[in-house]
Design a protein that fits this description.
- The complex is a heterodimer.
- The longest helix of chain A has 19 residues.
- Chain A is of the alpha+beta class.
- In chain B, a hairpin with a 2-residue loop joins strand 6 and strand 7.
- In chain B, helix 1 runs antiparallel to helix 2.
- The interface between A and B is large, with 51 and 59 residues.
């Protein structure tokens, strides 16, 4: 009996050690995998806060694992405006003028609808290690949650943020917090995950806030009101024709 | 009739029908089969009306400005300008979209004092778009657009040689408008998607009818005889005054970095105010490229030539050749602020390249000035505030319109706006300091005007 208990304890301890001994690359790859879905359909709201108050923008969005992403704004001030990302091109559709604008290059650094989320943030693909080198830092507890800390450094100048520190929740492999730094080491933005939910057996982020650390009282909060994963999404949704509907 | 049913009326009819059905069932020895069919009919009656109507949304926009303007000879006036915009759009069905857009103007706002407010209502848009899948695997789709709306052909925020449908070459712009080029027309268009980023679009536009005589018909006191006389004089355009054409849109390269667009239009009627020599059927073609290499760039060329053989055809054709080109760039200062610039030009190679005399202008009314330039600088110290400098420059006759302003999105849907507009140039130039059309307070029509106001979208 004692021998069996000892064996079980050793196995549990070994498993725990293996878990703790995951490399930075393994953590980042698993984090990317957890956020990859065949398709996703969401409805949500973006709350943009500055010194004058908070403005709410509602939207519907669709995405697929190929990185295509369509967002349509449904609140009055922006109604009918759409943003489509495919590859490295972002399209903006303005329904009043029935006009289509293509964004490439430096235009992608602009904040989307005046938020702290840039078009470049949208175009970043999910393969983090293609663009960043990863180094594991000391584990940390954030808001009572056990997290790994991984420092990501850009491999080239093509990345939107030269250095990032991502705090990955051990239980879900989702980011709990992310800090974004410039090359000079200045903290530019901070992302905090406020809520996660399980949908179709997968953990997903349903509420997060991004704060601009260079400005006082400037933040963007994203809240997903409904999320559907791995549901049929017509590939023709991500086309110029559909954008101009 | 089904469409007019309210929910309450629907439920009442359903209950009544159900009661009547029960009485019928009780008379018949075989209940189950008949009852099933009748309930199916009842259920279908309940369901059918719901499928005939889609959801909708209404968005309203109010633009209201106080305007102080300097007319010719140093006279100053003060007044109000503004308009209301109402958009009713369908929602819920992704393959069909309908929209009705009304614009409302009140003559009171134009400094004419009347006892009561009289509103003028314009129909800006009224259309239906429907998408049909031809081959889902190959991404072949067909979109049919029917009604009054806009097709944006070509590329260019202000000057666009590819806009052969509506014409984007007038230098007179109202910078208070949300969209500088937003003309609409009754049209039908078929858009064939050949792949997600390649499509062919065909369109047909009926001729516009001069409605001024119709207004006389509607005046009180116009008798039947007068009406008959007016109707007999109405000059209705023939089918040859319709416009028909098409364009091809294709994004090229592995990363789709370059966009190519080319099109043709048989234009049976000009949709802008033009000299008489240009008010005839024309063939119009354009070719344009757009891409990005450090800057966003675009280049478009268009040509027009008369359908009918006329004297001096080559002279006319060459003078209608236009080239528009543009560069734009946005530079992020930090995560919240940015500075951007845009530069667009309109070239008319066979236009006037020296300040034309009055005789030259009268003898060649179709000939435009050879060059117009539109520079724009915008500084956003924060995402909700925009400071801008815009100008239309006519270097040939040394005149320009300059507009500086600010647009501040304070609360959701509310923008505070300020515009200061200056016109510089001698009296007979494209823009002139000593010019003022009394009663018209549109930006740019006077030597100087200042507008301060609000835009609220709800």
């Amino acid at each position: 009996m004692n021998k069996k208990w000892m064996t079980a304890l050793v196995l549990i301890f070994a498993a725990a050690m293996m878990l703790a001994a995951q490399s930075a690359e393994e953590i980042v790859n698993r984090m990317d995998r957890e956020q990859k879905y065949e398709t996703a359909k969401t409805s949500g709201s973006m709350f943009i806060t500055d010194r004058f108050g908070t403005k709410q923008t509602d939207f519907l969005s669709w995405g697929n694992k190929g990185g295509d992403f369509l967002i349509e704004f449904t609140s009055a001030a922006e109604e009918g405006q759409k943003i489509l990302r495919t590859g490295s091109v972002v399209y903006l559709f303005f329904p009043d003028a029935e006009d289509l604008m293509r964004l490439q290059g430096s235009s992608l650094k602009q904040g989307m609808m005046g938020s702290d989320i840039s078009y470049e943030d949208m175009t970043e693909g999910n393969s983090t290690l293609d663009k960043y080198d990863a180094v594991k830092l000391d584990d940390i507890e954030i808001d009572g949650v056990d997290c790994w800390a991984v420092e990501l450094t850009g491999k080239s100048r093509a990345v939107p943020y030269y250095r990032r520190i991502v705090y990955v929740e051990k239980a879900t492999y989702l980011p709990k917090k992310e800090d974004y730094f410039s090359k000079s080491g200045k903290l530019l933005k901070e992302l905090r995950v406020l809520e996660v939910k399980k949908v179709n057996g997968l953990w997903i982020i349903t509420e997060m806030v991004i704060e601009d650390k260079l400005k006082k009282n400037s933040s963007t909060r994203l809240k997903m009101n409904s999320v559907q994963l791995n549901v049929p999404v017509n590939k023709n949704l991500f086309s110029v024709n559909n954008l101009m509907m | 009739m089904l469409l007019k049913w309210s929910v309450k009326r629907l439920i009442c009819y359903a209950v009544l029908l159900n009661t009547k059905l029960r009485r019928v069932m009780q008379r018949s020895p075989d209940f189950s089969g008949k009852r099933l069919i009748c309930y199916a009919v009842l259920l279908n009656t309940l369901l059918v009306p719901a499928k005939l109507t889609a959801g909708s949304s209404a968005v309203y926009q109010l633009d209201l400005f106080m305007n102080m303007a300097r007319l010719a000879k140093g006279e100053w006036i003060f007044g109000y300008t503004g308009e209301a915009d109402m958009k009713f759009r369908s929602k819920g069905e992704r393959n069909v979209k309908g929209e009705i857009n009304l614009e409302v103007f009140s003559p009171d706002l134009l400094s004419l004092q009347t006892g009561t407010s009289i509103a003028a209502v314009g129909l800006k848009k009224a259309y239906i778009k429907a998408n049909f899948v031809l081959n889902e695997e190959k991404s072949h789709m067909l979109r049919w657009t029917l009604g009054k709306t806009r097709l944006s052909w070509g590329e260019g925020f202000v000057f666009n040689a590819g806009d052969i449908l509506f014409g984007s070459f007038s230098p007179y712009l109202d910078f208070t408008e949300t969209e500088l080029r937003d003309e609409t027309a009754w049209l039908t268009a078929l858009n064939f998607q050949l792949s997600p980023f390649v499509f062919l679009e065909l369109t047909a536009l009926p001729p516009e009818v001069d409605l001024s005589s119709y207004f006389e018909l509607s005046l009180p006191g116009t008798g039947a005889e007068e009406q008959a006389e007016l109707l007999a004089t109405l000059d209705l355009p023939g089918i040859e005054n319709s416009s028909v054409g098409g364009r091809v849109y294709a994004e090229l390269g592995k990363d789709r970095t370059v966009k190519l667009e080319t099109g043709y239009l048989y234009s049976g009627q000009s949709r802008t105010a033009v000299p008489e020599v240009l008010d005839q059927p024309m063939h119009r073609i354009y070719f344009g490229l757009e891409g990005n290499k450090h800057f966003n760039w675009q280049l478009t060329s268009s040509a027009s030539f008369p359908v009918n053989d006329i004297e001096n055809q080559w002279d006319l054709t060459s003078r209608l050749w236009q080239i528009s080109a543009g560069l734009s760039h946005i530079h992020s200062i930090n995560s919240d602020s940015s500075i951007s610039f845009r530069l667009e030009t309109l070239w008319v190679p066979y236009g006037f390249w020296g300040n034309p005399t009055v005789v030259e202008r009268v003898s060649s009314p179709e000939r435009a000035l050879g060059l117009l330039i539109y520079p724009e600088f915008t500084y956003s110290p924060m995402s909700s505030l925009m400071l801008f400098l815009r100008s239309v420059i006519s270097p040939i006759d040394a005149s320009a319109q300059v507009s500086v302003g600010a647009d501040w999105n304070v609360y959701k849907g509310l923008n505070l706006m300020l515009f200061l507009n200056f016109n510089g140039g001698a009296g007979d130039r494209t823009f002139a300091w000593e010019r003022g059309d009394a009663g018209l307070l549109q930006a740019g029509s006077t030597g100087f005007s200042s507008l301060i106001g609000m835009r609220y979208k709800f």
